[in-house]
Amino acid sequence: MEMIWGQLAYFGASFLWGIVLMLIYDFVEVFRHKVRHGKVARLIEDWLFWLIAAILVFQMIFALNNGIIRNFFIASFLGGMILYRKIVKDRVVRFLLFILHTVCRPYVWISKKICKKQKEKAKSP
Question: Residue 100 contacts by C-beta under 8 Å, 6 or more apart in sequence?
Fold first, then answer.
């Protein structure tokens, strides 16, 4: 019975890791949306993200199932990723952009005022 509970925990953890990784990737996408950069930078970001994700998932597999990958792990992991993408992704991205816009708005307004004052000082003799 203990073995079944362990495998059930492994199944649930893999499902949650699929969701968590897609949530973290949404932070990367929001960053890309706000800070434009080229294909090489995107390639490096993706490579680093998936390298870190692979290390974290391997640690989870090793801790919960002695490093043995099971078919239900892969199905559960992909299921978590797909469900997150289909159901929650758009809301999370909109919320993150709203928070980022709300937090940054005062700083943008202040910086525009400072730049305007500096231009006025530069024009006056």
Answer: 30, 34
- Token readout for 90 is 């758009």
How far is it, in rounded angstroms, from Cα 13 to Cα 88? 19
Residue 24: partners with Cβ closer than 8 Å, 6 or more residues away = 49, 53
- Backbone angles phi and psi of 108, in degrees to 5: -65, -45
Contact indicator for 85, 22 with CB cutoff of 8 Å: yes
Residue 124 binned pLDDT confidence (cut-offs 50, 70, 90): low
Q: Provide DSSP, 58-89.
A: HHHHHHHHTT---HHHHHHHHHHHHHIIIIIH
Is the sign of the CA dihedral 71, 5, 81, 56 positive or negative? Answer: negative
**Claim: this prediction has a pTM higher than 0.70:** yes
CB atoms within 10 A of CB 14: 25
Task: Count CB atoms within 10 A of the CB of residue 47.
Answer: 10
Is residue 101 within 8 A of residue 30, CB to CB? The reply is no
